[in-house]
């Protein structure tokens, strides 16, 4: 009895050690691949090497599982369990469904990388167009995979589609906002009011577009915040694209004292901004009269910048303000601060100023002063 027991223990020990070695091998391969991906960075993720490595990892993991099952002779018990529970057919369908969905997921990633490699070498295809092609391909593949999975569990696919149509109506009523965002996403992708990397203002939000999906549009504000906007809200708000034309006009307002000639001030301001590196010289800078302000004549200094961005805009604005201020100081042109002129009605005695003398009262209609009434009374008494 001792020898057979020792043999069993040796067998179990050998299987245990072999199992540990298999698990260590699988984990080691996965860890090594993870380290390599970090070292390769984003360039490797767009190459065919990533797909090959992912396939190797999947095969090694699956091979490890199969090896453990064979090592412990688990095929027989698993088969008897499936038969006793009557899950042979269902298990096969579930397994096939998992295979179909997994293959679709892997194929979607592969197609995305192929599209990225193919379009990345062509300057005529923009990032926005690349995103449209990828999203349409993704939706098509997942729709076909879903139909295949549904077909595995039913033989009358037509009746199922009819029922799914009614179910879709109910779901559409309940999730109309989400579906509206999806439809608006496709509208935005095809109408192209903006592209990834554009500087836009959507409603009260302003920033750089970082991603456009079929559900949301993501922008990064100039404060470093990432904002996700539902596409149905984006399509329902005014959209201002500041980078579409490749250049942007900015205007800086400056006030000129009423004692100065506004035409001469405009000429000096126009000469001051010419030659600035932060602005374009064509179209030429312009200075126009805007309005009569409370304390100054307001002029508008209009200049253009290329490749618009928030940084370029503020640099140009700062340069224009500095140049105009220096030029006005040299020419003695005053940029007045807000001020008011107070005047009192003379017939009511004006108004007193602190530390000053009160103005003399206005004469009365009979020619007398403020105290004439008393004097007149005295004259009558003498008579």
TrEMBL record:
GO cellular component, one term: plasma membrane
A Pfam family the protein falls into: MS_channel_2nd
Ranges for region Disordered: 347-383
Keywords: Cell membrane, Membrane, Transmembrane, Transmembrane helix
TM helices/strands, residue ranges: 12-33, 53-72, 92-111, 132-154, 160-190
Superkingdom: Archaea
Bilayer topology: Multi-pass membrane protein
All residue ranges annotated as the Mechanosensitive ion channel MscS domain in the record: 182-244
Keyword Transmembrane set for record: yes
Cell compartment(s), UniProt: Cell membrane
GO molecular function: mechanosensitive monoatomic ion channel activity
Compositionally biased intervals (Gly residues): 366-383
Domain Mechanosensitive ion channel MscS C-terminal, first and last residues per copy: 250-335
Coiled-coil stretches noted in the UniProt entry, renumbered to this chain: none
InterPro entries: LSM_dom_sf, MS_channel_C, MscS_archaea/bacteria_type, MscS_beta-dom_sf, MscS_channel_2nd, MscS_channel_C_sf, MscS_channel_CS, MscS_channel_TM-2
Family: Belongs to the MscS (TC 1.A.23) family.
Protein name: Mechanosensitive ion channel family protein
Source taxonomy: Archaea, Methanobacteriati, Methanobacteriota, Stenosarchaea group, Halobacteria
């Amino acid at each position: 009895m001792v020898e057979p027991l020792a043999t069993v223990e040796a067998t179990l020990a050998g299987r245990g050690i072999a199992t540990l070695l298999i698990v260590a091998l699988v984990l080691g391969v996965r860890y090594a691949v993870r380290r390599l991906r970090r070292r390769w960075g984003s360039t490797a993720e767009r190459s065919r090497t990533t797909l090959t490595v992912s396939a190797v990892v999947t095969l090694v993991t699956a091979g490890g599982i199969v090896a453990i099952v064979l090592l412990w002779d688990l095929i027989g018990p698993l088969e008897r369990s499936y038969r006793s529970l009557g899950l042979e057919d269902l298990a096969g369908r579930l397994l096939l469904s998992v295979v179909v969905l997994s293959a679709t997921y892997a194929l979607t990633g592969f197609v995305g990388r192929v599209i990225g490699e193919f379009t990345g070498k062509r300057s005529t295809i923009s990032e926005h167009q690349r995103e449209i092609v990828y999203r349409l391909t993704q939706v098509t593949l997942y729709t076909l995979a879903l139909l295949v999975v549904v077909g595995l569990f039913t033989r009358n696919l037509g009746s199922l589609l009819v029922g799914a149509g009614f179910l879709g109506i109910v779901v559409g009523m309940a999730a109309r906002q989400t579906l509206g965002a999806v439809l608006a996403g496709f509208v935005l992708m095809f109408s192209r009011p903006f592209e990834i990397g554009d500087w836009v203002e959507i409603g009260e939000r302003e920033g750089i577009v970082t991603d456009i999906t079929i559900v949301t549009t993501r922008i990064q504000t100039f404060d470093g915040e990432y904002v996700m906007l539902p596409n149905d809200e984006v399509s329902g708000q005014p959209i201002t694209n500041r980078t579409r034309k490749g250049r942007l006009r900015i205007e800086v307002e400056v006030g000129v004292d009423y004692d100065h000639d506004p035409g001469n001030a405009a000429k000096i301001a126009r000469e001051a901004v010419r030659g600035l590196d932060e602005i374009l010289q064509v179209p030429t800078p312009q200075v126009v009269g805007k309005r009569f302000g409370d304390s100054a004549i307001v002029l508008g200094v209009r200049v253009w910048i290329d490749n618009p961005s928030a940084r370029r805009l503020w640099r140009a604005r700062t340069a224009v303000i500095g140049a105009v201020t220096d030029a006005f100081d040299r020419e003695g042109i005053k940029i007045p601060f807000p001020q008011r002129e107070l005047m009192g009605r003379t017939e009511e005695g004006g108004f007193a100023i602190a530390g000053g003398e009160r103005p003399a009262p206005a004469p009365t209609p009979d020619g007398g002063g403020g105290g004439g009434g008393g004097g007149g009374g005295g004259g009558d008494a003498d008579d």
